[in-house]
Amino acid sequence: MTDELNQIANIPLLSIATMVVVMLLEKVIPWSARSHPLTLLNSMAKTMALKVHKDKSNSPAQQKISGALAIVVLSVPVVFIVAIVLFFAEFTFFFDGLLLLIALRFQPVVEGSKKIQQALEKRKKALARYELSRWTLRETESLSEMGICKATIETLLLRFGYQYMSVIFWYLIGGGIAALIYRFIYEMSQTWNIKNPHYKHFGRPVSWVSFILNWVPVRLTGVLFIVAVNLSKAIQAVRRQNGVASGHTLLLTLFGGALDIQLGGPAYYNKCKIRLPKCGGNKAPDSGDISRARLGILQSLAVFLAMLALVSAGLYSVR
Fold it and tell me: Which residues, listed in sequence order, are joined to residue 280 by a DSSP beta bridge?
């Protein structure tokens, strides 16, 4: 009986230990975009769209069917190859960690936010707009300094939820292959983003799948963030929000409330103005708040790792 308990406890403990090591490696190991596997996957998604979505005159239903089939055609071979490797691997935890390292690509976003902040502090708004344009689909050419700060903070925090914590969530659920599949789906949803009129219908299926996969983890991320930063102000921000907020607005309300800064508001995508409610705190964000957002991410990770330590201690005590 003791041996069986040891085996049960060792598996999650090894997965948690592998995850923590990979989280540290992702922060310190530079991995250029050119050589990163996600760049290849994005290139495959773009090529697929060029082949199967040439004619926008097709009906919305036909475009959605093409988009759904494109997900299957791209995902199945990748999953099959990875599954075969894991099946024959002697040290599966090593390959699990490698898959997580591939999927857990967030540090470039953090570094991008630092470049934007540095450009703003040097009064180089054109450079700040250019750096921001690399990480967001919204139009940045006419953004004010406050608008740049707001868009940078929103991009940083939302990507922390979608690209980082959601990947970790699926790793804990299904290992490295689940983390990679989620990240691949997310990357496809960004490549075929429905805010781009060309992908309005073609990208709808992958947008739905991505929404379903990240619905739970991004909300858990929001809760984790407000617990780590400022729970009371976040609750006040939610209470001030009029009406039923969308998931996107709810997240920005939690993030902005915890940091006591105003987020949301109208944004331009492909010359179209999308009106989103203002939410969060009352203070207009400035360049210093970009640092505070990064600090909030670190505080959230500290709380998350502390929770993992307690869980690991509990599993170890079962042995």
Answer: 262
Distance CA(260)–CA(133), nearest Å, equals: 25
Beta carbons of 304 and 289 less than 8 angstroms apart: no
Q: Of 38, 29, 31, 27, whose CA–CA distance to 181 is shortest?
A: 38
The string of pLDDT tens digits covering residues 121-177 is: 999 999 999 999 988 888 888 899 999 999 999 999 999 999 999 999 999 998 889
| pLDDT tens, residue by residue, 23-74 | 999 998 888 888 898 988 889 888 888 888 876 778 888 899 999 999 999 8
| The two structure tokens encoding residue 178 | 């689940």
Contacts of 6 (CB under 8 A, 6+ apart): 319
In terms of Cβ atoms closer than 10 Å to its own Cβ (0-12, 13-18, 19+), residue 124 is middle
Residue 175 neighbours by CB distance under 10 Å: 21
pTM value > 0.85:
yes
Which of 184, 31, 4 minimizes the C-alpha distance to 106?
31
How is the chain split into domains, by residue range?
A: 2-318
Q: What percent of the chain has pLDDT over 90?
A: 52
Evaluated on CA atoms 231, 232, 235, 236, the torsion sign reads negative
